[in-house]
Amino acid sequence: MDTNKRPDDMQRIVAPEQARAFIDEQVEAVRAQVGDGKVLLALSGGVDSSVVAALLIKAIGKQLVCVHVNHGLMRKGESEQVVDVFQNQLDANLVYVDATDRFLGLLDGVAEPEAKRKIIGAEFIRVFEEEARKVAGEVGFLAQGTIYPDILESDGVKAHHNVGGLPDDLQFELVEPVKLLYKDEVRVVGRELGLPESMVERQPFPGPGLGVRCLGAITRDRLEALREADAILREEFAAAGLEGKVWQYFVSVPDFRATGVRDGVRAYEWPAVIRAVNTVDAMTAEVPELDWALLKKITGRILAEVPGICRVVYDLTPKPIGTIEWE
């Protein structure tokens, strides 16, 4: 039997009782697979890895070793939420690695988007590998948040695991409890496991994080302005009841400045670009017609609360021709 093929008779998980049945089934399966062994998981804070973490904690408790790497490119409050939910609330065996200086040092002066992506991806693997080697003698399993669309997109072999490219001498058996689920089913399971709604409904977030939204060469001051402006946008979308209704929304801050006037004095600061899209498959995307009062409120808050930002613009470009991300 092909374990990477979803059975034709498998019902879609839409209700809490179906989620509970799935959780019970996977808890039993994980315990049978792992026994008294230890499992390693790269916990990004995204929906898939968070649900896998919560499920494995329920199944094997402290036998799971979660590694959260903060590369300094997370959105405001995300790493703190991972620590609070998994270490403080779920009592997880969590290893927190603050690698901010390490990543930003490597990215200093690098402006080309693909170069930034490669640096961030490669360094993440190095950091995770270092943590994996610390426990390699005692851990025999690697858990991953593979879901069914990943398998379908890569013809049965997932090419974009949470952790890819680990050396061959770190040989782990894979544990992938949600690999036959679609994203909407993973969210239902996450709710039943007690994860907070903000984590279950977390928007798609690129692996390089804010690294591809701080356009061009990243500087710490512009990265911090981006993080604060993005947090305001997310707060106001949530207050307006748009969470779950707009597929993705975020701020980008480019590496050029514009002239403004602040308190009667010339301000030569950055623009903030609001991007919001609705899509079904991420291949095409439309820009929602946001309420004018909401846009004005967001603009007012960003200009008043975020040092270094003197303009706010709304990106009206659909996909195609524009991609969802700017980089």
Query: How many strands appear in the DSSP assignment?
Result: 9
Q: What is the percentage of strand-forming residues? A: 15-25%
In spatial order, strands of the major sheet run 3-2-1-4-5
Order of helices and strands: HEHEHEHHEHEHHHEEEHE
Query: Low-confidence parts lasting 5 or more residues at pLDDT below 50?
Result: 156-162
Q: How many helix segments?
A: 10
Summarize it.
The protein has 327 residues and is α/β, with parallel strands linked by helices. 40% of the residues lie in helices and 17% in strands.
Walkthrough of the structure:
The protein is an alpha/beta fold. The protein is 40% helix and 17% strand. The chain has 10 helices and 9 strands. A 5-stranded parallel sheet has the order 3-2-1-4-5, sandwiched between helices. Strands 6, 7, 8 and 9 form a 4-stranded mixed sheet that branches. α3 links the parallel β2 (64-70) and β3 (93-98). α1 (16-34) packs across α2, α2 crosses α7 and α9 (220-239) packs antiparallel against α10 (292-305).
What topology does this entry show?
Blueprint: H1 16-34, E1 38-42, H2 47-60, E2 64-70, H3 78-89, E3 93-98, H4 100-107, H5 113-135, E4 139-143, H6 148-153, E5 173-175, H7 183-192, H8 197-200, H9 220-239, E6 248-252, E7 258-262, E8 265-277, H10 292-305, E9 309-314
Parallel strand pairs: 1-2, 1-4, 2-3, 4-5, 8-9
Antiparallel strand pairs: 6-8, 7-8
Helix pairs in contact: 1-2, 1-7, 2-7, 9-10
